[in-house]
Design a protein that fits this description.
The protein has 151 residues and is an alpha+beta fold. The chain has one domain: Ribbon (Umud Fragment, subunit A), CATH 2.10.109. Helices cover 28% and strands 31% of the residues. The chain is built from 3 helices and 8 strands; from the N terminus they run αββββββββαα. Strands 1, 2, 3, 4, 5, 6, 7 and 8 form an 8-stranded antiparallel β-sheet that branches. A hairpin with a 3-residue loop joins strand 4 and strand 5.
């Protein structure tokens, strides 16, 4: 039987692996990257970035008081990056480059490992990031109708 282990517990091992030039993998937990990554079903592989971070990359980082986060870069600035989960409509505050632990290189769904650099994933990430405003408007309209029903 597989017993869940928290990232806090295994982070020293992950960090050592990344620092030595290796990769680490884990099953994701959370819904912020839906529909791209599914909670407790999909697995990701991470590595230290070997190039400059760019828009659409999925990065792994840690925020004090929040924990470990896996989100997509939506903007690169001179001082850092702006991220957003695929299932979110609001950007996060600026994250400094030094706060990025790793970058996602691959993911596994239904037992099949896939690269985030595949043509399908490149097209998906560009479409998803650049159509966020439509999802935000849709959620706002749904919220308005839901609130009216309750009155």
């Amino acid at each position: 039987m597989n017993k869940p282990i928290s990232l806090d517990d295994i982070f020293p091992i992950i960090s050592e692996q990344l620092v030595s030039g290796g990769t680490a993998s884990f099953t994701i937990h959370g819904t912020s990257m839906l529909p791209f990554l599914k909670d407790r079903k999909d697995k990701v592989w991470i590595t230290k970035p070997n190039r400059k971070l760019k828009k659409y990359d999925i990065i792994f980082y840690r925020l004090d008081g929040v924990g470990f986060i896996l989100h997509r870069i939506v903007k690169v600035t001179r001082d850092g990056v702006i991220c957003r989960g695929d299932n979110h409509t609001d950007n996060e505050p600026l994250l400094k480059f030094d706060d990025v632990i790793a970058i996602v290189t691959d993911y596994e769904r239904n037992g099949k490992k896939r690269s985030v650099d595949s043509v399908f994933q490149i097209l998906y990430s560009r479409f998803w990031v650049n159509t966020m405003i439509f999802r935000k408007v849709k959620r706002k309209i749904e919220s308005m109708f839901k609130n009216r029903k309750g009155k």
